[in-house]
C-alpha cells in the first residue's frame, strides 16, 4: 500500500539553528500517527512544514504521491490536508454554523449542500445545538471541537492536529479521544497528531515518532517506543505515563 | 546654479524639521496608544491660529508662544485621552477613525467659523531677514523655527530615554501585557502620551505660523502629511519620524522648484507608495517578527 | 437573496416592502427639492454598499474610494465631451480603468502584506496622487474642471443620461436596489463566506484552503467597478467635475460614513446609514439658514458631533441595533 504522507529527510534551520534535522517517516492511509517530543523538539516546525506554513530547507514531503513541500497553506488544504491550531482560532464574529460552512464550501459550490454537510459535521461533534451561537461565546472545549469540525468540513484525507488536547481536563480529553477515534473510523480520515498528552497518544496512535532536539530518536508502535531506553531518558523520564 | 539647488535643499531641510516635529507627535500616539489620530493635522491648524492670535493681539513671538500653546495642548490631550478616547483604545481601526474624523471636522470648522476661510499671514517683523552664508541665503525665520523644533525634539528624546515616565511609556509600546503585569498604570501613561503627542503638534503648529499662512483647509493636508512621514520613517521610531520629515521637506522643496509647487505633495505620495511596497516597516522601523 | 428575505420575520419583510413601495412612488408626492435629497441618499446607498462589500465583508479598509468615483466620472465625461461617446458605452472603459487602479492597489497591498491602517494609507496615497495628477491633465480641464454642456435639445435623451430630476431619481433608485440585491447575493455566496473568513482571521482562512490573495482581489475589483458606475452617475447628474471635489479625501470619508453608521457587513446597514446622514446634513443646512447663522462651518460641526455620538453609542452601527430592538430578524442567539 502506498503511503498517504511521506516525509523524507526533511530539515529546517532558523539562522543556522537546526530546528528539524533530517526527519523521515510515512503515514499509511487510515491510521493514526503521533509525533511526540519535549518542548523545543521541533514538533511544531515539522507540523508547519507539512501544513505549508514553512518551507523546508531540505528533503521532500509527498502527499498521495504529490510533492507538497513549499506550497502555500491553502494549496495544501485544497489537496486534502486539513489542520487545527494549537491556540484555537475560530472565526470569532461568525456563528458556529457559518464557521463550519466556510470549511464545507471548499469543495462544494451548492450552498444548500454545503449547509447540509456543515450541519451533519456539527451533529457528529455534538455542536448542532449550539450552531447559532457566536463562536466567541463558546467554552474552550467547544471551540476545540468547532475547529475540528471546521477542518473536517473541508473533506480532508489527512487531518493534522496540533496539540489538540492542550488545555483540556482529563474528562474532556477522554471525550476528544472518543471523537477522534470516531472521525478516524467512521469518516475514514487519517490523523497525524502532534501531542504532549501521553495518555491520549497511547490511546489513539497506531504508530509514533519521537523527536528530540529536532532529530528522530525512535519510531514504531507506542508500546514498543515507550520501552525504548533512549526515549525514557530523553523524554519520558520527566513525565509519568 | 549649484547655489540655487543648495538653497532649495536647505530650505527643505529647515521646513522638514517642523514636519518631523509634527510627525513625532503622531508617531508617539500611533506607536504607544496604537490609535490612529486622524485629527492630527487639524490640531496643528488650531495651534497655528492660536499662535497667530497671540502674535496679532499681544505681539507674542510664535517662538515664545510655542511653550504655553504646547502646555495647553498637553492638558487637552491628557483630558481627551482620559475621557473620550480611552474607551476606543483597542477597538477596530474604523471606529477610531470615525471618532477622530468627527473630532477633526469639529476642530477645522470651528476655526473656519471664527477666522473665515482666507489665509492669515502672521507677518513677523523679521520675516524677510536672512542670513548669508557663502552661496547660501537662508531665511531667518526658518532657521529660528528649525532650531526651536530641534530643541523640542531633543527634549523629547531626553524624556523618553532618561526619565522614569518616558521609559515606562516605551515599555508600554514594546510589550503592553508585560507593562501591565509589572504594575504600570497604562491608562495614565496613555493619557500622558496623548498629551505629549498633542504638545508636539502644538509646538509644531506654532512654529509653522512663522513660515506658512494659517488656513483651515491645511488641516486634512497636514494629517496626511504627518501620516506619510510616520509610515516612511517607520512606526515607533522617533528618529525615523525626524529623518522622514527631512526627506519629505526636501522632496517637497525640490519638486516645487523643479516642476510645480502644486505638484509637490504628489512626490510625497509617490515616496509613500514606494516605501509601503518596498519597505513596509519604514526606513528606520524594526522588521516585524 | 431569497435567504435574506427568509431570515427576516414578517415584521422585517413588511418594513422592507413598505420602504420599497414608498420610494417607488415617492415622486408622486415629493417636491423637486425632496426628490433631489432622495436622489442623493440613494446615490450614497449605492456607493456605500460598494464600499461595504470591501470593508464590511472582506475587511479591507479603503479610505480612497473617491478615486474610483473620480475615475468613473472623468472617463465617461471625457468620452462624452470629446468624442460624443454616450455613457451607456462609456461606462465600460470607465469601469475598466477604475478596476485597473483597484487591481494595482490590491496587488501592491495584498502581495506585500500591507494591512489595516497601512493599507488604508496606501489607498489614500493613490487617491491623492491621482487628484493632483488630474489637476495637471489639460485634456480633462485640469484644476479648472470638466463640464458636460447642458443642452436643452438633448434633455429627453435618457439613453445618454440627459434627463430630468425624475429620471435621475429612478436611475439612483435602480442602482441602489441593484446594489442591495447584489450585496445580499454575495453575502450568501461562496465568495461572501470566503470574505467573512478573511475578515475574521486571515491565517485560519488560509488553513481552510481559501486563496486569500484572490478573494481579496475579487473584493477590490467588484468594489472599485461598482463605485466607478457611481462616478458615471455623479458626472452626468451634476455635469461638472473638479479634481479637488471628486478625488478629495473628504469625498472618500463622506462615502464610507453611511455604511459605518448604519452597520458594516450588513445588507441594510448602508441603506439605513445613508437615510440617516444625508437628511441630517440637509436638515442642518436649512436649520442654520433659518437660525440666521451665516457660518459655512456650523453644519459641519454638528455633523462631526453627530458622528462622534453615534460611534460612541452604537459602534457596530444603527441597523444591527435597530433590527434587534424592533425584532426584524429571526436569529436566535
From TrEMBL, chain A:
GO molecular function: ATP binding; ATP hydrolysis activity
Protein name according to UniProt: ABC transporter ATP-binding protein
Keyword Magnesium attributed: no
Keywords: ATP-binding, Nucleotide-binding, Transport
Cleaved signal peptide residues: none
One GO cellular component, as annotated: plasma membrane
Residues annotated as domain ABC transporter: 5-238
Automatic annotation (TrEMBL), chain B:
Organism, as annotated: Rhodoplanes roseus
Predominant location category: membrane
UniProt GO molecular function: transmembrane transporter activity
PANTHER family, alphabetized: AMINO ACID ABC TRANSPORTER PERMEASE PROTEIN, BRANCHED-CHAIN AMINO ACID TRANSPORT SYSTEM PERMEASE PROTEIN LIVH
TM helices/strands, residue ranges: 12-36, 43-59, 65-85, 97-116, 141-160, 190-212, 224-248, 254-278
Cell membrane listed as a keyword: yes
Subcellular location as annotated: Cell membrane
Top-level taxon of the source organism: Bacteria
Family designation: Belongs to the binding-protein-dependent transport system permease family. LivHM subfamily.
InterPro entries: ABC_transp_permease, BCAA_transport_permease
Gene Ontology biological process terms in this record: amino acid transport
Key words of the record: Amino-acid transport, Cell membrane, Membrane, Transmembrane, Transmembrane helix, Transport
GO cellular component: plasma membrane
Membrane association type: Multi-pass membrane protein
Lineage start: Bacteria, Pseudomonadati, Pseudomonadota, Alphaproteobacteria, Hyphomicrobiales
Pfam families: BPD_transp_2
Protein name: Branched-chain amino acid ABC transporter permease
UniProtKB/TrEMBL annotation, chain C:
Mode of membrane association: Multi-pass membrane protein
Record GO terms (molecular function): branched-chain amino acid transmembrane transporter activity
The keyword Transmembrane helix belongs to this UniProt entry's keyword annotation: yes
InterPro entries: ABC_transp_permease, LivM-like
PANTHER family hit by this protein: HIGH-AFFINITY BRANCHED-CHAIN AMINO ACID TRANSPORT PROTEIN BRAE (PTHR30482:SF10), HIGH-AFFINITY BRANCHED-CHAIN AMINO ACID TRANSPORT SYSTEM PERMEASE (PTHR30482)
CDD domains: TM_PBP1_LivM_like
Lineage of origin: Bacteria, Pseudomonadati, Pseudomonadota, Alphaproteobacteria, Hyphomicrobiales
Protein name: Branched-chain amino acid ABC transporter
Protein keywords: Cell membrane, Membrane, Transmembrane, Transmembrane helix
Residues spanning the membrane: 40-59, 66-85, 91-110, 167-187, 219-237, 257-280, 300-322
Superkingdom to which the source organism belongs: Bacteria
Organism field: Rhodoplanes roseus
Amino acid at each position: 500500500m502506498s503511503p498517504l504522507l511521506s516525509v523524507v529527510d526533511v530539515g529546517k534551520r532558523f539562522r543556522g539553528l537546526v530546528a528539524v534535522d533530517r526527519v523521515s517517516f510515512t503515514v499509511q492511509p487510515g491510521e493514526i500517527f503521533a509525533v511526540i517530543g519535549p518542548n523545543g523538539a521541533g514538533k511544531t516546525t515539522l507540523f508547519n512544514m507539512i501544513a505549508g506554513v514553512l518551507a523546508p530547507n531540505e528533503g521532500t514531503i509527498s502527499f498521495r504521491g504529490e510533492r507538497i513541500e513549499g506550497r502555500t497553506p491553502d494549496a495544501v488544504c485544497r489537496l486534502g490536508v486539513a489542520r487545527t491550531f494549537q491556540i484555537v482560532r475560530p472565526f470569532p464574529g461568525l456563528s458556529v454554523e457559518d464557521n463550519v460552512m466556510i470549511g464545507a464550501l471548499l469543495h462544494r459550490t451548492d450552498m444548500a449542500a454545503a449547509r447540509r454537510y456543515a450541519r451533519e459535521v456539527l451533529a457528529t461533534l455534538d455542536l448542532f445545538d449550539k450552531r447559532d451561537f457566536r463562536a466567541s461565546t463558546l467554552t474552550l472545549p467547544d471551540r476545540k471541537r468547532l475547529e475540528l469540525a471546521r477542518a473536517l468540513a473541508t473533506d480532508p484525507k489527512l487531518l493534522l492536529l496540533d496539540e489538540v488536547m492542550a488545555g483540556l481536563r482529563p474528562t474532556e480529553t477522554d471525550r476528544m479521544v472518543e471523537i477522534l477515534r470516531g472521525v478516524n473510523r467512521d469518516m475514514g480520515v487519517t490523523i497525524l497528531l502532534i501531542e504532549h498528552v501521553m495518555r491520549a497518544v497511547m490511546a489513539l496512535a497506531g504508530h509514533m515518532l519521537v523527536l528530540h532536539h529536532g532529530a528522530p530518536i525512535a519510531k514504531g508502535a507506542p508500546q514498543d517506543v515507550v520501552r525504548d531506553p533512549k526515549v525514557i531518558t530523553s523524554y519520558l523520564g520527566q513525565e509519568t505515563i | 546654479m549649484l547655489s540655487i539647488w543648495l538653497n532649495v535643499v536647505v530650505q527643505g531641510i529647515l521646513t522638514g524639521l517642523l514636519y518631523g516635529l509634527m510627525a513625532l507627535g503622531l508617531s508617539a500616539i500611533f506607536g504607544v496608544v496604537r490609535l490612529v489620530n486622524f485629527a492630527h493635522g487639524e490640531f496643528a491648524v488650531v495651534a497655528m491660529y492660536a499662535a497667530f492670535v497671540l502674535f496679532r493681539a499681544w505681539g507674542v513671538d510664535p517662538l515664545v508662544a510655542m511653550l504655553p500653546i504646547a502646555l495647553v495642548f498637553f492638558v487637552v490631550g491628557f483630558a481627551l485621552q482620559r475621557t473620550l478616547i480611552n474607551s476606543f483604545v483597542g477597538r477596530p481601526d474604523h471606529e477610531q477613525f470615525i471618532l477622530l474624523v468627527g473630532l477633526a471636522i469639529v476642530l477645522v470648522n470651528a476655526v473656519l467659523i471664527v477666522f473665515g476661510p482666507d489665509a492669515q499671514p502672521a507677518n513677523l517683523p523679521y520675516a524677510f531677514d536672512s542670513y548669508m552664508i557663502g552661496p547660501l541665503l537662508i531665511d531667518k525665520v526658518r532657521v529660528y523655527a528649525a532650531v526651536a523644533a530641534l530643541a523640542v525634539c531633543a527634549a523629547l528624546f531626553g524624556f523618553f530615554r532618561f526619565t522614569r515616565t518616558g521609559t515606562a511609556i516605551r515599555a508600554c509600546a514594546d510589550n503592553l501585557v508585560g507593562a501591565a503585569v509589572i504594575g504600570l498604570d497604562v491608562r495614565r501613561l496613555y493619557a500622558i502620551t496623548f498629551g505629549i503627542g498633542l504638545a508636539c503638534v502644538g509646538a509644531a503648529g506654532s512654529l509653522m505660523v512663522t513660515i506658512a499662512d494659517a488656513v483651515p483647509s491645511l488641516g486634512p493636508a497636514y494629517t496626511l502629511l504627518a501620516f506619510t512621514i510616520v509610515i516612511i520613517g517607520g512606526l515607533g521610531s522617533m528618529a525615523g519620524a525626524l529623518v522622514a520629515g527631512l526627506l519629505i521637506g526636501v522632496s517637497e522643496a525640490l519638486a516645487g522648484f523643479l516642476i510645480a509647487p502644486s505638484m509637490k505633495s504628489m512626490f510625497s505620495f509617490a515616496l509613500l507608495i514606494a516605501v509601503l511596497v518596498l519597505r513596509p516597516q519604514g526606513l528606520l522601523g524594526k522588521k516585524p517578527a | 437573496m431569497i435567504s435574506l428575505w427568509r431570515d427576516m420575520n414578517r415584521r422585517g419583510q413588511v418594513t422592507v416592502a413598505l420602504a420599497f413601495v414608498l420610494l417607488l412612488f415617492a415622486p408622486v408626492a415629493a417636491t423637486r427639492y425632496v426628490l433631489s435629497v432622495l436622489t442623493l441618499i440613494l446615490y450614497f446607498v449605492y456607493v456605500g454598499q460598494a464600499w461595504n462589500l470591501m470593508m464590511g465583508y472582506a475587511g479591507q479598509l479603503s479610505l480612497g474610494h473617491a478615486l474610483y468615483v473620480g475615475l468613473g466620472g472623468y472617463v465617461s465625461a471625457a468620452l462624452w465631451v470629446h468624442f460624443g461617446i454616450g455613457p451607456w458605452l462609456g461606462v465600460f472603459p470607465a469601469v475598466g480603468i477604475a478596476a485597473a487602479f483597484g487591481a494595482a492597489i490590491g496587488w501592491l497591498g495584498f502581495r506585500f502584506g500591507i494591512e489595516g491602517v497601512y493599507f488604508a494609507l496606501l489607498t489614500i496615497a493613490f487617491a491623492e496622487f491621482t487628484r493632483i495628477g488630474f489637476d495637471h491633465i489639460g485634456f480633462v480641464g485640469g484644476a479648472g474642471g470638466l463640464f458636460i454642456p447642458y443642452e436643452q435639445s438633448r434633455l429627453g435623451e435618457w439613453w445618454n443620461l440627459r434627463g430630468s430630476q425624475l429620471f435621475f431619481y429612478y436611475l439612483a433608485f435602480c442602482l441602489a436596489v441593484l446594489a442591495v440585491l447584489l450585496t445580499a447575493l454575495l453575502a450568501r455566496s461562496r465568495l461572501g463566506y470566503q470574505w467573512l473568513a478573511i475578515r475574521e482571521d486571515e491565517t485560519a482562512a488560509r488553513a481552510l484552503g481559501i486563496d486569500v490573495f484572490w478573494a481579496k482581489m475579487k473584493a477590490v475589483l467588484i468594489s472599485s467597478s461598482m463605485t466607478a458606475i457611481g462616478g458615471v452617475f455623479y458626472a452626468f447628474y451634476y455635469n461638472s467635475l473638479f479634481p479637488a471635489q471628486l478625488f478629495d479625501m473628504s469625498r472618500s470619508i463622506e462615502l464610507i460614513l453611511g455604511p459605518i453608521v448604519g452597520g458594516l457587513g450588513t445588507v441594510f446597514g448602508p441603506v439605513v446609514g445613508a437615510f440617516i446622514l444625508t437628511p441630517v446634513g440637509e436638515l442642518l443646512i436649512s436649520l442654520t439658514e433659518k437660525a440666521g447663522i451665516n457660518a459655512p462651518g456650523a453644519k459641519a460641526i454638528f455633523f462631526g458631533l453627530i458622528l462622534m455620538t453615534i460611534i460612541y453609542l452604537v459602534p457596530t452601527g444603527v441597523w444591527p441595533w435597530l433590527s434587534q430592538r424592533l425584532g426584524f430578524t429571526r436569529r436566535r442567539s
